Structure formats: C-alpha cells, structure tokens
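WARN no homologs supplied; continuing
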Amino acid sequence: MTVTRTVSKRLSPSNRSVERGLEILRAFRPGSTVLENSEIADRTGLPRSTVSRLTTTLVRAGFLEWDQAAKAYRLGAPVLGLAQSFLWGSSILQVALPKMRELAESERVNVGLAVADGDEMIYLDSVRRSRSELFRHLVSGTRIPMELTSLGRAFLGTLTANELRRRMVRFRRRHQGKWPAMRDEILRSIADVRRQGYCVATWQAGIFAIGAPLVIPNLPVHVLNISAAMQALSPARTEEALARRLLHLTRDVREAFIAREEE
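OK structure emitted
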C-alpha cells in the first residue's frame, strides 16, 4: 500500500519574531509549567537576550504570566481559549470522535488521533477504554515522541525523502549511541506503513500500539492509533485483527469527512 499526501505550497518568508515567540510557548508543557528565561533559552536554543525580550512582549499580550514568587513565567489564560477554540472548531474531530468511541467501546482498546508538531506528535483526542490501562492519562494536547511511537512512525511514513532525511538527522543527534538500532526500527516501520498502511510500536513496556496515517486532501496528515496492554491480546485480538479494525476506522473517517465537505 502506497501512502501519498498533498504537499502545501511554499509559504512566503516568515516573521522570525513570531516564530520565536511561538517556540517559547511550545517550551511549556506538563511537567514544565513554570520556566525561567534561562530554562526557556535551553529548551528553545534561543539567545537569552532574545528570550528576555520576547517573554516581556508575551506577558504584555497576556500569553505569559510572571510568577513573582517563583521568579519565572507560566502560560496565560488566552492560551486555553485558543485550545478550546481549536477543539470546538475542528471538523476532523467532529467526524472522527464518534467513530473512535465506537471502536474503543467494542474492542475495549484505546483509540487516539494526533498530528505532528515539529519533531513530536500531539494528541487531538484520545478515547481510553482499556481497563488494564487506566493509569495512562492522555488528554488533548499531550505530546509524545515522534521517532519512538506508532503515531509518529506512521506519520514519518508519509513524508518525502527530503522531509524524512531532515527529521532523521535531528533524531540521530537526540539519541546518539542508540541511534543505529533505532534507525533500523524506524525504517522498518516506514516500510510497513508504505506497504500495508500501518505500523506497530511498543515504546512503553507492556503496551502494544498500532498507528495508521489519515491522509485527506488539503489537510495536514493526521494519524489514528489503537493501543492496548500486551496481556489483553488474545487469538481474537491479534495484531492483524486490530490492524484491520484500525484501517477500517481510517477509511471510514476519511470517507465521512470528504462526504461532509461535499454537502
């Protein structure tokens, strides 16, 4: 199976200050909710003088708040407003979620929908129905590694050679000594996606996950996945059976979305 996608036209030259300001906002995530300028600089690779100037601007705009006690910054409420606006306005979520819930309930598995953000995948939503995995708390906005997960590797399977090469260079720098074995795993997953439409990854101990790209013209590539505890697999719930359900879900969401847009 060959996976293809629509490549958007090259955008006009970007505004570096805006890009850098967005990189600062990306530095905040669960576990890193309060950051000093030096920490932001380390996470973004930006000069500290640039970070200081932009955090001041973001505070004035309300997107960051200054915590006087911690001598650090935290995200401002407008960020939450933007997130809610996105979730309520996402037509792909409106189409996909009911079908994701149906599959999660019928198979007692977890079903997720994610998109790429830089070198990570970010969950748009995740329906958690596997009783043995109640400890996994994934919500909209959760970020996971691209190179380690079924979601990320399924996305990598849709990239052009040049796009893939650029990301692989960054992954290699990140993992260094572990890179040769990881590179081989990633390439096998990409080959699986291009041949059969999905890939399997077990980056968390005891968790089995299958990812499949959802490619719709004029939209960013989305990825759907199914995950479950290894012990939950049975003769009736094999990789092949769950992969078949995932591919059916991907097809159904794509067809429903296109039909909706044509109405």
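Residues 90-262 form a domain with the Beta-Lactamase fold (CATH 3.30.450.40).
OK
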